[in-house]
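In the previous chapter we treated chains in isolation. Here, by contrast, the input contains two separate entities that must be folded as one system, with a combined length of 602 residues.
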Amino acid sequence: MTITPEKAAEGRRNFLKILAGTPALAALGVTAAMKGPVRGGPVRVGFIGVGGQGRALLSNVDPAFADVRALCDINPTSLARADEVLVRNKVAAARHYADFREMLQKEDLEAVIMAPPLWAHADLTVGCLEAGKHVLCEKMMAGSVADCERMRETARRTGKVLEIGYQRNYNAMYHAAYDGIIKSGAIGDVYHVRLAWHRNGNWRRQGTPPSPDFDASKWGYPTFEHLINWRLYWKYSQGLMAELCSHQLNAANWFLGSKPEAVHATGGVLRFKDGREVFDHVYATFEYPTGQTAVFSSVESNAFDDYYEMFMGTKGTLILRREIEALYFEEGGGEAGATSITVAPQTAGPVALSSETQAANTNQQMAQGSPVSPLFDRPRSTRLQIQRFCSAIRVGTPLACGPDKAFDSATACIRANDAAKQKARLPV
Amino acid sequence: MSGAQQVLLVALRTLIGWHFLYEGYFKLATPGWGADGQPLSAWSSAGYLRGATGPFASVFHAVAASPWLGSTDIIVAAALAAVGIGLMLGLFTQIASAGGIALLTLFYVSSIPLDGLPGPRLEGAYLIVNKNLVELAALAVVFTFRTGRIAGLDQLRARSTARQSAVRSTGAAA
């Protein structure tokens, strides 16, 4: 699917028209309670995992909200690059660690923000929560249902804040769309959701070890190649379902107010037969108990369509593209064929070299469209996410994606991979 | 005094007390976080003092520039809170009222509205009389009517003192 520029302009106008008067930012969950201030300074945080996505988070730390005291990563190159981020942000240098336990022991931290490879999420999160730290963990929650449950249970037991990083939850455009179009009923009843994330390129990364004697095996990676390409192996990763689909499914669950009860999927390593394990093409159909169906596709061989979430209601169609552009078309309203879609010349953006979490996708081509509003840009969502994590710690403002919501989208994505491997329909 | 007069006087004292107490608490609670999740920077009287006008402006400006401004901030905030507690509880009411009057006098003379124009940090336009002066006058009423004797912990304090005096005088007589 792609939409002509004229049709996109019409869709943007429709979106803004229907949202007239919707206080987008007011919808971000903060309600003014009748109470005075609570004493305290910025939250003292440490970072674990300062690769591409970790640094994207680090660069969006507002010093009024968080004071970055320490950085932890097994790769010294990543630590050096993270130092550059701190210099650019004009904040004090942070101490370096390779072992998170040592960091927790030596530093007076209140919270940890982490973006390590998926397989490490549960152990690191549980370790930090048990040590009395609040945790903002990058998506997806964990690589197995058991690990997700372990994280959720530990957060409950310790009473610490656990937020899973889905930036769409902090994107004002999504809140405006949800309030103005979904919740208001303007779109009618939604039965079908289309989720797409299409790219044309190789996910494999190239890199050299930080030093000739660097030994990745002591961290569980047999080679340095496994460390930098952890996304390509089942041991560490849940592939495209975790890195891409979980973002979109999380938003679909939110908008539908439900969670999938079953999934059937297919996929495989169809193009890049270079020793990788995770699928480079996946297709999944999620069934909701309330009668809706979400269909997800992600291909690594064609970037036509780019990425979007499309909510198809009985009264209209809402399209959220690339997290920066919202279109709305009424069914049978306005111009004839308002929801028809025409084919335009393909624009194939390069595959993101860093994590698919959007704050890091600075190299993703953004040839089409423009943000509906400056409020909707991605760094703003990431920045807001970290701000809200800190205010949840200090004054208990509600989380946008706490353990329960994150659990629902993660388990569905994990089961989708199981279904694709078995070519079966599985309950979630 | 009628019952209604007494009730209203005590209510006036309580309202002024809450105003003082919250002003003091807010200042002491910073740096902190608002209920809306936004961080609040540490309160300082520096800006207010630097902007002081009127006959004592130079004194206030000197305080703003002094190295003990931080201590002044804490003293002012603590004094506001203490006055507020005293007025709300009716405890040491006369001292609290006098302290409140002194603070309000300082606030008033540091910025007497003489131009009659609305300012950027004001809700309205004032000439000579502003809210500080009105509150000061109200507190003078509270002070004059000795409302601690109408209701408040001062009553308990007075009874306790009277009992002790009675015991002492009984003992002396025996």
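Residues 5-32+172-207+224-373+402-427 of chain A form a domain with the Dihydrodipicolinate Reductase; domain 2 fold (CATH 3.30.360.10). Residues 334-369 of chain A have pLDDT under 50 and may be disordered. Compare these points with the single-chain example from earlier in the chapter.
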